[in-house]
Each structure stands twice: as C-alpha cells, then as structure tokens.
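REQUEST FORM: STRUCTURE PREDICTION
Request ID: SP-0412
Submitted by: Lab K.M.
Chain count: 1
Length (residues): 382
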Amino acid sequence: MSKEDNNLRLIVMPNIERFGTLVDEKLRLIRGDNASRIVKLKLDRFSNGEGKATLIDSIRGKDVFLLSDVGHYGEESEYVSRGTKYLKSPDDHFQDIKRVISAMNGKENSLHIVMPLLYQSRQDKRKTCESLDCSEALRELERRGVDGVITFDVHNPGVENALQNCSFDNLYPTYSVLSKFVTEEEYDPSNLMIVAPDTGAMDRAIYYADSLGVDVGVFYKRRDFSKVVNGKNPIVEHKFLGNDVAGKDLIITDDMIASGGSILEVATDMKARGANKIYLVATFPLFTEGKKSIDAFDRAYQAGVFHKLYTTNVTYVPEEIQNKEWFTEVDCSKYLAKIINAIYERDSIREFLDGKSKLSEKILKKRMKEVQQDSKTVEVSE
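STATUS: Completed
RESULT:
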C-alpha cells in the first residue's frame, strides 16, 4: 500500500481532541503530505439526556482509527439535560464510541478503537459475584465488528484473552518517558535505582531498570482484606525488598496515579531511608480526588519528598496540573502515529514495542558528549 493513497482516517472524539490533533500532525509528517485525516463528527444530546452521533464526512471504504479518552473530565465532556449541567463518566464516553460505530454502519473498510486508557481496566477480574466489565466491553466491541483495540499500559494485560478474532495491542510509553528523562536529567547510572510501588508494577520496573542498566527494588503492599474503603482494600503496611537506597536517585514507576496516596507513601518512605532525588513516573495521572490529590502532591513537593513527576499526554490532565513546577508532560503522539501508520500499511509494529536499543544509543551519545565537554574543560584549565 503506497503512501500516496488516501484511505487512512482518524475519528477524534471531543474528549481527546488535543492529543488526536497532535497524532494527525505527526501522521502528516510520517506520510509526507499536508492532508488532515480527521473525520468531522457531531455528538449531540437531546434535552432529556439521550444522545446521538453524526458523521459529517464519509468513511466509506476507509481504514478508520477512532480515538477516545474515556477518562476525560474537562469542559469538553459536559452536557446539559433538563437544565442541569452534567459531566460525562467513562460509561458515557464508551457509549459515545458505540454511537459512532453505529453511525459508521459498517461502511468502513476496517476499524481500530484507540483507547489509551482502556475502558473499565480497573475492573479487570472477578471476585465472587462481581461484574466483569472490562472483558464484557471488549467482547462487545468485537461483536460490533471492530478489527482491533489499541491501548496504553493496560492495568492487566490478560484482558486481551477476552477477544478471539479482534487484535489487541498494548503499548508502553517507556521509550518516550525515558528518552525525555535521559535528555533532561543529570544522573549517575551507578547511583540510580528503579522502584516498583507494588508487586503488580514489578514487570514495568524491571523493564525500566533493564533499559537504563540500573538496579531495581519493589514494595510489597499488605492489605486488610476484611475491609473495603473507597472501593478497595486498605493498605496497612509497606515492606521494601531491595538494596539500600541511601544517597541514591530513584524512579518510582506505576501505570496510573489514582488518588496519589500510595505512590506518595512510597516516596515518603524512600526519603526517610535516605534517598536523594526521587522521580515519579506514571502513564495515567488521574488525580481522582481532585483538589485533595493536587494539594497532597504540592505539599510533598514542597517538603522535598519528590523532585518531579513524569507523565504522558494520552489522557486528560487539567491545565492547573500542567502548570505545576513538579509536572513534566511526555508527548506520545509521534509514537502512536507510527503505530497507526504501520497498522494501516499492514506492517509489523514489533520494532516500535521495544525501544531499548534506541534508548541505549541515546544514553551513549549523551555520555560521549559529557566526556567531550569534560575533556575541553580540562584543556582550558591546563
């Protein structure tokens, strides 16, 4: 399939317009033209709250990638019903995806759903008589004729087993995050450690450690399973398994920051053990408790508990947080654009899934540049 054809289309839901526009711009660069591939779309609400989707542009015979941020909670997700303003929930955003699929009416050649934050990913397994929301949602998309689902750093990769004939690509922003970290931060690899805040984040931490060639440690969370607080079992004790962190710089990495309490507890514990600079890394900065969560991060930053938070732009982050001194955004639009382009061209995406070699080259170049600068400094002093 040549790059001159015109069958690639993006449906960018209003809840992901900022990121979707960036992906569109990157696709123009990759494909060497100036044509926007975004399909015009209308999402309306009737006065009683019912909704509908309308496609303005044709998608007949096109290869469509529908982008949606089901975690969005900004102004773009507001609607009015019976004179009262409401904010769309993840359920509402997912319903909008289904409305658009219905509006397409099977006229597309292929359809991939891009949900960076996978819908109901936190309800990924069943305990006793609980609902199995994530798997049910994926199966519903498959029944509706979706050819593939693309997501980022899914909470439990095993959910893809719910699908039979629909592809499932779980992308990790590791290269994008570490590339920015390596570029912006001064650090000594021999004095850096990756820390997983719980055993569930261990695979991610090992990947980070392997990519940077550094040590790794993990916290074990002991929970009280006899109680449920805010929908989850409360943590009663943290135990750290790893080498001494005194004097070391740390990267604490997890898939998401919900309230933020857990990752801040780990950072506080590490600081008490004598850690030097502590960097927090999370793909999804949800800040589910709003101002309470933000204030907690402000206090922790002012107290020197952590140095910086690295996170991505694949999900909504309020401008208030983006402007914080401790906040660093990592742009993943180019990465996703490369994935979309490869899938559209029927090419393998394997080379984009593991950025270790590219990262090693980047680190080597930085080290060589530092050595050259040190040599020049010595020559001048002599």
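NOTES: The chain has two domains: 8-172+334-347, 174-331.
Reviewed by: T.R.
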